[in-house]
């Protein structure tokens, strides 16, 4: 085992890897609660049950997808990087595709499956890296920051801090209400923990907020800690079955845009995470990422597996940097994280106490982490600043990640051509320009 994971070469040991794997799990365990809440649209009242995914099934799908993805990354690529259904991608799935577009969650899962299959093909052909390199860095950073703002906006809504206002569209909610006060308390606790550099600060903040909620009577205590694993039957295999059951909803331009969006966002989530974690762990060699193909293949397979199980796109988690900071250097840490995700399946009754006010602080803080990419954008160049800014601001204001991406990618070739920098535009950007023009013509 030590030889396979190159413990001696990387100066690590079982203790460091186990602690690193545990730290990574604690840092990203919030997804076990946030993902089911998001995909089941629990915080959106008045929806028919047909629009909501089964909470228990999504919980199981999330845990298993995270376990399989992390295991593949650890064993194949040997990187201390854990995977799980991605934040931002699940928001796009639930709030944009299902809620705004009116696409069934079954068809949305099929879209995730298609994107995963395309991922595998592109990875095996070596095209995925080339496509990633063709997108301007500034737009990659803008997409990450825009998704961060979008997730934060959703968090403020779930907390009741931001509410609908007929006069000015949105406004400040009732800060004296119990659930909102609980969410505000959670924000303060999580901010303090994260500022102090506490490993798993987001997860610990959720636990403290939930305990306080139970003490003050805002959350009903769990009837038990351990319990039977919920059935995954409501979501398992639906992505495949739906291809034959709803072809009229699958083979459309709208679905093409959805699949491309899943593809694009996961492209840069994974690429950014791989580079960030590898840099922090000192694994980069000559500014190149060793075993990049295997890492991307693991990520692609995890997306396909997750879609079949019943969850949105599974991707690499930047929270893995917390595990690296705790000492993780090899894929053994990812194996440890995978085992912990499997064990979490038995804690379903306990996790039911995590309500919207408890998860809202996690969404807000994750948003804070994601907008750090703003500093990487050259705002002094107007031809770059315009498409980057429109990408970022359009996401929360239109309540659509896809619209933000489309807006920025339409303006980028325009501003670059007018500036006289047409030669710097990769041909892929012209293709995306056409795709997103069609997006607004036929969908919006």
UniProtKB/TrEMBL annotation:
It is found in: Cell membrane. It is a multi-pass membrane protein. Coiled coil: none annotated. Its main location: membrane. InterPro entries: Azg-like, Azg-like_bact_archaea, NCS2. The chain crosses the membrane at residues 21-43, 55-76, 83-102, 108-127, 139-163, 175-194, 201-219, 251-275, 330-351, 358-377, 389-412, 424-443. Keywords: Cell membrane, Membrane, Transmembrane, Transmembrane helix, Transport. Belongs to the nucleobase:cation symporter-2 (NCS2) (TC 2.A.40) family. Azg-like subfamily. This is NCS2 family permease. The lineage of its organism: Bacteria, Bacillati, Bacillota, Bacilli, Bacillales.
